[in-house]
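Quick check before the chapter quiz. The format below is the same one you will see on the exam, so make sure you can read both the input and the output lines.
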Amino acid sequence: MGSATPLAGIRVLDLSTFLSGPSATRALADLGAEIVKIEPPAGDRTRAGTGLRPGDPPSEFWLALHRDRRSVVLDLKSDAGRDVLVELTTHADVLLENFRPGVTTQLRIAYEDLRDANPRLVYCTITGFGPDGPFADRTATDGPVQAFTGALELTGPPGSFGLPVPIQVADLVGGAYAAQAVVAALYARERTGRGTHADVSMAECLLGWLEITDRQRTLAPPTTLVLATADGESLLVQTTMHFADRFVELMAAVPGCELLATDPRFATRDDRREHLDAYVDVVQRGFRTRDADAWLAALSAVGIPAARIQTSAEARAHPQLAHRAATVETEVAGLGTRALLAGPFRFDGERRRDLVPPPALGQHTREVLEELLGCDDDRFAALGAAGAFGTADAG
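Here is the expected output.
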């Protein structure tokens, strides 16, 4: 096990779909875990949902989310498919699922159904509101969870509600906490020798984030400003806490901005908020006297947080990420060589870099069953005849 892959040797069965579960297993893969994605015969619904058909190159969504895993097709609605999954759990460390509450019980693959087969299994469940309680059966996607938790208070005008944050924050925070729960459960297993059932609610995870979010809008202007420079670039400058006075002092030394130091309208942050238009007008005039690089250097010299506003593609191509070796050149079928974003984890200066593009549906069914279950041709054929793989090509 290298320092860049602390979870090497850990095998995860991923029964999840959409975003929360796959983002959790992507994080575990970034840490070195082996991910075996269990898909229904028709494939993960987001394959079709992102326009993928057999033979199509992966979408950007699929490429980013489902790299570094093997694909096994099982029809869990069949007894044969369910029995194969139970057998696979005896060779796994973790099972992660984000079915609607009650589905795993119907399929007879709930934690209570599997723990006897593998008492060391860490079983992680992600739900919208929790697997029990009055909202347990509610259909939960990111937007309704944001609405339920109060996230929309942050996107509308003061005292009102807006639209969901245009990032699936409920899914992503649920996935992040699920990955943490799995790692913690694996650590606990080292002491107790026993697995556990980790239960993660997206709503509760997001509420935890919202409790420490800027709900008083202290980051609104004049604290956060978007300013145009002489060369047409836009910079975001954020002057929380002591940075505000430091910024005013810097700007007051710019020709044409001297009144920032003398005009009582700009004396305090509250004054600047009350006279926001006048304050922004003065600061903006000052910023148009220099280009973006000059302003970034001046702001950095006095420790004021600022950055050029740019696209995600520009960020990925930035020299900072190149210096950190944060992307990996990988050959992707149908797309040629692509720069994939590596995991954000570095240990002793090392980052996992052996990234693998997403698998085709069922690409590894035979391989995994042979490797883990010793499945020969006769048994594989018998499983197929019994409906373990549905009607899809098991590969």
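If your answer matched, good. The chain is about 40% helix and 15% strand.
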